[in-house]
Design goal:
The chain is of the alpha/beta class. Among the domains are: 31-70 and 86-266, Rossmann fold (3-Layer(aba) Sandwich), CATH 3.40.50; 368-448, Arc Repressor Mutant, subunit A (Orthogonal Bundle), CATH 1.10.10. Helices cover 48% and strands 15% of the residues. It has 15 helices and 16 strands. It has helices at 3-26, 40-51, 56-70, 101-111, 126-131, 164-172, 178-186, 223-226, 264-267, 286-300, 313-327, 335-404, 409-415, 418-421, 426-436; strands spanning 75-76, 89-94, 120-122, 134-140, 146-152, 156-161, 191-192, 203-204, 210-217, 237-241, 271-273, 279-281, 283-284, 332-333, 439-442, 445-448. It has a five-stranded parallel sheet with strand order 3-6-9-2-10. It has a three-stranded mixed sheet with strand order 1-12-11, with no helix packed on it. It has a two-stranded antiparallel sheet with strand order 4-5. Strand 15 (439-442) and strand 16 (445-448) form a beta hairpin. The chain is elongated and about 115 Å long.
């Protein structure tokens, strides 16, 4: 490595360390302060977060995730692009260790109660997600005898992941169906293992399940999840900051706000769609539908190029808008819900970008550490080669001096080989030979020294 290359590497390392310091100070983006004052339920979420010393953003994400599975799985977003889609929601809370990523989920449980039939379980595998909704039930075999078989008996589940890197690692294992199952569930596609034996086959038909997944994730460990961008997994998530840059000076009291899911009478007002199952679709404002349709047409006609990281933004925003409406006690997604959902989705993109940068920084640091090792080896090799060349050149000069009796500098220079000249100069070789006592300097040149005698 040349001196210029070494200087460039040192400058690059210094710039990296400076950027890392800035990222650690700034942290991931959070929702604008004015959002919490727009609605009483949002203010209650903020106050609950402050009362329990957790992030308001992370708590709101956990609250929306619980709302998604607190309502019947038959509640859908109408088919604006494609068919109706359920409320399956994935929340990724981002923050350093000990900041309270999982604590926000526990606080959310105090605000949003789930029906007893909704299980809360850690994630394991794609098959495990499907199995979570199944149970052994007695069934008549046609002869009057009964035996137990696995059947789907539940339609909603809340799944937790304490460390998001495990999600990517589980999904990246050979033969794993976890990430593909999560992607399919998010769009209400069928999930299960159709290729299994009859005894092990578990199938959940399209639209017959709603999942919420709560993930706690350190920014630098987001790589395995972010790497699934081509398949579309990280784009289906709402990313929220688990730390809070501006906690209140005084801890407020616990808010008196409570939330209740829509009643059967409320649900009866929803439009019912047909098919093999009957869905109830929430109303969506015409202006929202027009905006989504116009953007879709622009993409289809290639007038609009979509960033792969933002490919699912419209559906993600519709889901968030519907959850905000339900949180407000409504079954209609208004333009104001859509606007607020847009703020959440934009903030989510910023948090995700922060994680991308954090992962890149770690990768850059590893690369620079590897490069530093190589530079050290290169320098050690150069030093070794120079030392050996210096010794060899001094010995060559000593032999030349010994043959001629008295040698001039020109004689010493001619004795040097081109191989030695790559690493040392003639003057350096002569000086080294003098230091070793191989030659001595006289008025008329150089004579053999005591060590060469």
């Amino acid at each position: 490595m040349t001196p210029d290359e070494r200087a460039a590497a040192d400058a690059e390392l210094a710039a990296f360390e400076a950027a890392q310091d800035v990222a650690e100070v700034n942290g991931p983006p959070v929702l604008p302060a004015e959002v919490w004052a727009e609605r009483p339920e949002l203010g209650a979420v903020r106050d609950a977060a402050h009362a329990r010393l957790v992030s308001p953003d992370a708590l709101l994400g956990a609250v929306l995730a619980r709302v998604a599975v607190a309502v019947p799985h038959t509640i859908k977003i109408p088919g604006i692009v494609g068919g109706p889609v359920g409320l399956t929601t994935y929340i990724v809370a981002v923050g350093p260790p000990g900041v309270g990523k999982s604590a926000a989920g526990r606080v959310a449980a105090e605000l949003i109660a789930l029906p007893p039939e909704v299980p809360v379980a850690p994630i394991g595998s794609g098959e495990g997600l499907v199995e979570l909704l199944h149970e052994l039930v007695p069934e008549d075999d046609g002869t009057g005898k009964t035996h137990k078989v696995k059947r789907q008996v539940r339609y909603r589940a809340l799944v937790t992941v304490d460390e998001g890197s495990a999600l990517g690692e589980l999904g990246s294992r050979k033969g794993s169906t976890l990430l593909s199952t999560l992607r399919s569930a998010w769009t209400d596609a069928p999930i299960g293992n159709a290729n299994a034996s009859a005894e092990r086959r578990r199938i959940i038909p399209a639209g017959q399940a709603t999942y919420s997944v709560l993930v706690g994730l350190q920014p630098t460990k987001a790589g395995p999840l972010l790497e699934d961008v081509d398949a579309g997994t990280p784009q289906r998530c709402v990313w929220v900051a688990a730390d809070h840059p501006h906690p209140p000076d005084e801890i407020p009291t616990w808010p008196g706000w409570t939330w209740a899911p829509p009643t059967p009478r409320d649900l009866d007002r929803l439009e019912v769609t047909g098919g093999p199952y009957r869905w109830r679709t929430v109303a969506v404002a015409e202006d929202i539908i027009a905006e989504v349709v116009d953007r879709r047409r622009a993409v289809q006609s290639r007038r609009l190029e979509v960033d792969p990281w933002r490919a699912h933004d419209d559906l993600l925003r519709l889901k968030v808008g519907a959850l905000l409406a339900l949180l407000a006690g409504r079954l209609e997604v208004t333009v104001d819900d859509w606007r607020l959902a847009g703020v959440l989705v934009e903030t989510s993109a910023g948090v995700r970008d922060y994680c991308i940068a954090a992962v890149a920084q770690v990768a850059g640091e590893r690369e620079r550490q590897h490069r530093a090792i190589l530079v050290g080896r290169d320098r050690a090799l150069e030093h070794d080669q120079r030392t050996r060349a210096l010794d060899a050149a001094a010995d060559t000069i000593a032999r030349k001096v010994g043959r001629v009796g008295t040698a001039t500098r020109t004689d010493c220079n001619r004795a040097m080989s081109s191989r030695h000249r790559q690493y040392v100069t003639t003057d350096e070789a002569i000086e080294h030979a003098l230091d070793l006592g191989l030659i001595v300097e006289t008025d008329d040149g150089y004579r053999p020294g005591r060590r060469s005698a």
